[in-house]
Structure formats: structure tokens, C-alpha cells
Description:
CATH architecture: 2-Layer Sandwich
Shape: globular
Strand content: 35-45%
Mean pLDDT: 95
Radius of gyration: 12 Å
Number of strands: 5
Oligomer: single chain
Distance between the termini: 29 Å
Number of helices: 2
CATH class: Alpha Beta
Amino acid sequence: MIKAIVLTRHAIVKMEERKIRFAWVEDAIRNPLWTEPEPRDTTAERRFARIGDHGGRMLRVVCVETDDTIRVITATFDRGARNPK
């Protein structure tokens, strides 16, 4: 079963401001290059994806996954993101 992705109001506003497409967020959520815990919230996770349509920039999506949904807290391009592997 594919979990529904739910955007918070904050995520919607930030995605509009930063011109981040939902498809990019979905790709980062479903096919991340890597993940890491969100330091400010132990229930949240950061997921990263390289966005070829946006100059190869790294997208960081902060989300909380439950049994039924994946709730997006925010999304931003992260110039300092480095894959820990």
C-alpha cells in the first residue's frame, strides 16, 4: 500500500515561496538518496534527493511517517547537504 502524502500549511507556503514542485517532494520521500533523523524533532526524518530539473540541487524534505500517511513538515534546497556514506 502506498501511503498518502499530506502537506502541512507550512510546507505548502514554503514550497510556493521556494518554487518546489510536489513531484520533487514526492520523489525525495519515496526514493531518497539518504535519510537522517531531524535533530529538532525525534519523530521526524530528513529525506534527501538531487533535483536534476533544478540544476542538480539537493532537496531536503522533513516529514513524519505514520502507519497511514507521510506528513511533510517543510521542504528546502540544502546547499550544505552531504551524503554521509
